[in-house]
C-alpha cells in the first residue's frame, strides 16, 4: 500500500468535506485503540478544529490511560487539537438501575447494556459537535463496517463521516506505523471496551482480523464448500455475522481509496 498517498488523500478529503459542510472541524471519541488513534491523527493533520473526547464507562485503566496519553500527545503536536474527558459512568449506571427490573431473566440484557454504552457515547459526541459546530467522525474500518458489522447501530455506527471505512484493519496498522502514534496505541490489542470484563475483539468474534479480511476479499465469489479447515471455520463466522448485520450497513459518506495505491 502507498501509505503516504493514502494518508494525504484522507486528510484532504476530511478537510474538503468539512469546508463544504461549513463546519469548523471534527469531534471524535478516543478509545485507546489503533482505529481511533489513526483517525484522530488524520483529523488533526487537517489543521481544522479537532475535539477529542475520552468517554469512560466503568473503563479499564489501561484503556483510559492510553486514550489520555494519545490525546495529550496530539495536543502537544497539533495546536488545533483539544481534548476532554467526559465520565459517562454515572449516566450509564443510573440508566442501568432504571431499566433493571424490566430485564429480569432476559438473556440479552448484557448485550443490550453493552450497546447502550456505545449509544451514550454517540449522544455525547453529537452534543459537543452541535455545541462547537463540528462533525462527528467515525473510526470504523472495512471489516467492522461492511464485513461483519462489528459495531453498534446508532452507537459508534452513528457518525457523519467515515474516513477509514475503505481500509482493512491491517491497512490501518500500516497507517499507524507511518503516523508516529505512541507505542501503546500502535500495539493495543483490539477491543470494543463495552464490557465490564475484558473481551478482546478476537474473543468475541472467534477470528482474527487478518483471517476475516481473507474471507471478505473473496466473499461472494466462493462458497463454504470451497474452503476447508480453519478457513472454512472463519468463512462460517464471517457469513453468519455479515448476514445478521445487513440491517446496519446503510450508506454513509466514505473515503474511497484508489485501488492502484494499494500496490507496493
What is the gist of this entry?
The protein is an alpha/beta fold. Helix content is 50%, strand content 7%.
Describe the structure.
This protein is an alpha/beta fold and 264 residues long. The protein has a single domain, classed as Rossmann fold, CATH 3.40.50.620. Helices cover 50% and strands 7% of the residues. The protein has a four-stranded parallel beta sheet with strand order 3-2-1-4, sandwiched between helices. Strand 2 (49-54), helix 3 and strand 3 (81-85) form a beta-alpha-beta unit. The longest helix is centred in the middle third of the chain and has 24 residues, at 109-132. The chain is globular, with a radius of gyration of 18 Å. 37% of the residues are buried.
Task: Write the topology of this structure.
Elements: H1 3-21, E1 25-29, H2 34-44, E2 49-54, H3 61-77, E3 81-85, H4 89-99, H5 109-132, E4 134-136, H6 142-146, H7 169-178, H8 183-186, H9 201-205, H10 209-218, H11 229-244
SSE sequence, one letter per element: HEHEHEHHEHHHHHH
Largest sheet: 4 strands, parallel
Low-confidence stretches: none
Class from helix and strand fractions = alpha/beta
Which characteristics define this entry?
11 helices, four-stranded parallel β-sheet, 4 strands, alpha/beta, Rossmann fold, 264 residues
Amino acid at each position: 500500500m502507498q501509505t503516504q498517498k493514502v494518508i494525504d488523500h484522507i486528510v484532504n478529503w476530511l478537510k474538503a468535506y468539512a469546508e463544504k459542510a461549513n463546519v469548523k472541524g471534527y469531534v471524535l471519541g478516543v478509545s485507546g485503540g489503533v482505529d481511533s488513534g489513526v483517525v484522530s491523527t488524520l483529523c488533526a493533520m487537517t489543521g481544522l478544529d479537532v475535539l477529542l473526547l475520552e468517554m469512560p464507562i466503568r473503563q479499564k485503566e489501561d484503556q483510559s490511560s492510553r486514550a489520555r496519553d494519545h490525546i495529550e500527545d496530539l495536543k502537544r503536536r497539533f495546536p488545533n487539537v483539544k481534548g476532554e474527558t467526559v465520565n459517562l459512568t454515572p449516566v450509564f449506571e443510573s440508566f442501568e438501575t432504571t431499566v433493571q427490573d424490566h430485564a429480569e431473566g432476559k438473556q440479552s440484557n448484557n448485550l443490550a447494556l453493552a450497546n447502550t454504552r456505545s449509544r451514550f457515547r454517540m449522544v455525547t459526541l453529537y452534543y459537543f459537535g452541535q455545541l462547537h459546530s463540528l462533525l462527528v467522525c467515525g473510526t470504523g474500518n472495512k471489516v467492522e463496517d461492511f464485513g461483519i458489522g462489528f459495531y453498534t447501530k446508532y452507537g459508534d455506527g452513528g457518525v457523519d463521516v467515515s474516513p477509514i471505512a475503505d481500509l482493512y484493519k491491517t491497512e490501518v496498522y500500516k497507517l499507524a506505523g507511518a503516523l508516529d502514534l505512541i507505542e501503546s496505541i500502535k500495539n493495543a490489542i483490539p477491543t470494543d471496551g463495552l464490557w465490564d470484563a475484558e473481551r478482546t475483539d478476537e474473543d468475541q468474534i472467534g477470528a482474527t482480523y487478518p483471517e476475516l479480511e481473507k474471507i471478505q476479499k473473496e466473499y461472494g465469489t466462493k462458497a463454504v464448500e470451497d474452503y476447508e479447515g480453519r478457513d472454512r471455520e472463519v468463512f462460517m463466522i464471517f457469513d453468519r455475522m455479515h448476514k445478521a448485520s445487513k440491517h446496519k450497513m446503510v450508506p454513509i459518506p466514505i473515503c474511497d481509496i484508489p485501488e492502484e495505491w494499494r500496490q507496493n
